[in-house]
Structure formats: C-alpha cells, structure tokens
C-alpha cells in the first residue's frame, strides 16, 4: 500500500499550477498538520492497517518545504510502525525554501528521497513560469541535499513552453545532469482552466519533434525512461505503485485515496478540512472504469498490461499492434514501445 500526504501551502503560485495550493494560509500550518494526524488515525482504524504495510510515503503539494520538520514529527512518529523497513520516503521541495536546516530536519525524520521542483535553469523561463527561485538557488539546494545525505534526488523540468529551443533545453539538461540526481521528470506544459496561463494559452508550444528529441537526449545521459514523463538510474517506487494499480491512502485537503476500487476525497478547502478531516466523499469504480485505468497506466509505463485483461477483440487488436512493432509481448504481457502513443494505443484497443 502507498501513502500520499498533501501539503497545500506555497510561497508563490506558479502560472501553470492547478493543484490545491495557497499562498495566503500559512497561519493554518500547525492546525493543518494536526488535522492530518487525526485523519491518519481514522485511516489506521478504518483499514485495520497492519504493521509494516506501507511500501512508500510521498509528501507532495503545494510545497512541503514550507512546513518546518518539527510540524511533521508527530505524523512520522505515528507512521513509523506502519512503514516497511527500507520504505521509500519522498518529499517534494522548492529550491528557495529547502534550506540546509529543513533538509537536515527531514533527513532526521526518515525522508530518504527529495524531489525538487526546478522546472528550468533559464532565468527568463523561470520568470515566465512564475517560479520563485533562481537557477543558482536550484543548484545550491540540490547540492545541499546531497550534503545532507539523501539517498535519492530527483528534479522536475518543464518543456513545451513558448520560446523553448533545443539550445535552451540542452542547457537545462546539461545543468541537471551536472548535479547529483538519479531521477528526472520532464513534463510538457499543459494549460489548466483557472490558472493564469489559461488567459494566454499560446504560452504552451509543445512540438512532437522537440519532445522526441528531448527524450532521446535524456536517455543519452544514461537515464532510462520508465514512464512517459519519468527517467532515471533509479525508479521511484511510489510512482510505479500507482501504475501497478496498488491501493493508496490520501491524507490532506484535496488528496485522493483509492482502496478496493473505491476512490475517496477529503474536503478540498483547507479550513473545511481542518474543521473535519474525517469527512470523505466516495466514488466506486466499476469494472470497466478499473480496466480503462489499468490500460492507460500500464501502457504509459514499464508496467505493461497482462493479456488476460483484454477481451478477444482487444487481444486481436493488440496482436496487430505487436505485428506493427507498436507493442511488445513478453511472458503474457504487452508493453508499449513508444509512450508518446500510449493514449492512442488504448483508444485503438478499446475500439
């Protein structure tokens, strides 16, 4: 089982961000962390959680590095019996708030992986995206995390922004790979409704040829692609858990959990969540919905899909795609040979 913890506080709101995050609610941090503890107690009891049953813990946001380690401490103390030995424990962080003191504090709590929201090492592009850090801060933060002793380090880059060129992206990659990271996520800019960029959608300019070039450049640095947006010498076990359709608990305002093919949603509003962290709405998933999700998740990653998941017509279509080199079959499982075609392949399989 996986555990996701959502931290909704941010020191700035990026122009592309549609996540449940806020720049004006820092006074609620202590109460919010206490509410997370109350929801965790409810989940432990509701699920009759067994000791050492949590394979991974991922703290996302928002910006987890805007919350002091001492506020995380009670949560970690309660979680410790339920984390498997050697569990992957990740926290996201922004370069401008992941201070050496914060990094040392999170390391002491047991975090063993930091994922930095860098997005670019180009100062003008960072301004265009609404990022609050500088390229130098990004370099310093990743270096400080290595010095703090974290076992695994990752960073995110964004591409497909108007003005992106091969030289600009090449510079981003060169700087990224000069740092002590073993994982990189490369996300295409998408325009989400309600974000500042929704008023200027022309800022997104993803070209398939540029995407293919970027992915190949990442691979030449020895980072293997294991999902449409993720590469590394190390594969995030938490990410893989989602694609393998493992059950997961979601703690926090706007977090999502999924247990036994039932999704549940706590309050999205931070104040409402603090007032009642035990509230949830539920969404049962029928067999067709589960199958579709497993197809999309499996074919956009190294997980693949079992032959047994497909009905006879879908299996025949899969064989045709295999003959064309678009799928590979091994030990009764189909694997995608080009993740950029994953959505199209699923739609073709389903007729």
TrEMBL record:
Q: Which cofactor does it need?
A: [4Fe-4S] cluster
Q: Where is the Radical SAM core domain?
A: 1-227
Recorded hits in PROSITE patterns, A to Z, give: RADICAL_SAM (PS51918)
Keyword rRNA-binding on entry: no
Keyword Oxidoreductase annotated: no
Quote the InterPro entries the UniProt record gives: Aldolase_TIM (IPR013785), Coproporphyrinogen-III_oxidase (IPR034505), Elp3/MiaA/NifB-like_rSAM (IPR006638), HemW-like (IPR004559), rSAM (IPR007197), rSAM_sf (IPR058240)
Pfam name, any one: Radical_SAM
Q: Which domain of life is it from?
A: Bacteria
Provide the primary localization: cytoplasm
> What SMART domains does the record point to?
Elp3
Subcellular location, record wording: Cytoplasm
Keywords from the UniProt entry: 4Fe-4S, Chaperone, Cytoplasm, Heme, Iron, Iron-sulfur, Metal-binding, S-adenosyl-L-methionine
Looking up NCBIfam families in the UniProt record yields: hemN_rel (TIGR00539)
Q: What does this protein do?
A: Probably acts as a heme chaperone, transferring heme to an unknown acceptor. Binds one molecule of heme per monomer, possibly covalently. Binds 1 [4Fe-4S] cluster. The cluster is coordinated with 3 cysteines and an exchangeable S-adenosyl-L-methionine.
Stated family: Belongs to the anaerobic coproporphyrinogen-III oxidase family. HemW subfamily.
**Protein known as:** Heme chaperone HemW
The organism's taxonomy opens as:
Bacteria, Pseudomonadati, Campylobacterota, Epsilonproteobacteria, Campylobacterales
Gene designation: hemW
């Amino acid at each position: 089982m996986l555990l996701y913890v959502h931290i909704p506080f941010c020191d700035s709101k990026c122009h592309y961000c549609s996540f449940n995050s806020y720049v004006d609610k820092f006074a609620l941090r202590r109460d919010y962390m206490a509410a997370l503890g109350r929801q965790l107690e409810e989940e432990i009891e509701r699920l009759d959680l067994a000791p050492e049953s949590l394979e991974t813990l991922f703290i996302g946001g928002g910006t987890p590095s805007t919350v002091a380690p001492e506020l995380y401490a009670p949560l970690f103390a309660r979680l410790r019996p339920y984390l498997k030995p050697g569990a992957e424990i990740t926290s996201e962080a922004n370069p401008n708030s992941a201070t050496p003191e914060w990094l040392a504090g999170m390391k002491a709590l047991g975090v063993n992986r930091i994922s930095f929201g860098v997005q670019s090492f180009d100062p003008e592009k960072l301004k265009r995206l609404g990022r609050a850090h500088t390229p130098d801060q990004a370099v310093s933060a990743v270096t400080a995390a290595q010095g703090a002793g974290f076992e695994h380090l990752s960073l995110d880059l964004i591409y497909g922004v108007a003005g992106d060129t091969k030289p600009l992206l090449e510079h981003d990659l060169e700087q990224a790979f000069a740092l002590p990271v073993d994982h990189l996520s490369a996300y295409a800019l998408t325009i989400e409704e309600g974000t500042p960029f929704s008023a200027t959608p022309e800022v997104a300019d993803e070209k398939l040829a540029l995407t293919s070039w970027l992915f190949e450049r990442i691979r030449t640095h020895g980072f293997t692609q294991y999902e449409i947006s993720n590469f590394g010498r190390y594969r995030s076990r938490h990410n893989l858990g989602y694609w393998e359709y493992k059950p997961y608990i979601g703690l926090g305002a706007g977090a999502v959990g999924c247990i036994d093919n039932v999704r549940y949603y706590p309050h999205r509003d931070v104040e409402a969540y603090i007032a009642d962290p035990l509230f949830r709405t539920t969404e049962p998933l029928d067999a067709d919905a589960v199958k579709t999700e497993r197809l999309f998740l499996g074919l956009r990653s190294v997980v693949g899909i079992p032959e047994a998941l497909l009905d006879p017509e879908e299996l025949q279509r899969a064989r045709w795609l295999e003959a064309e080199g678009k799928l590979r079959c091994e030990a009764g499982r189909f694997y995608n040979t080009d993740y950029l075609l994953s959505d199209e392949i699923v739609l073709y399989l389903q007729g």
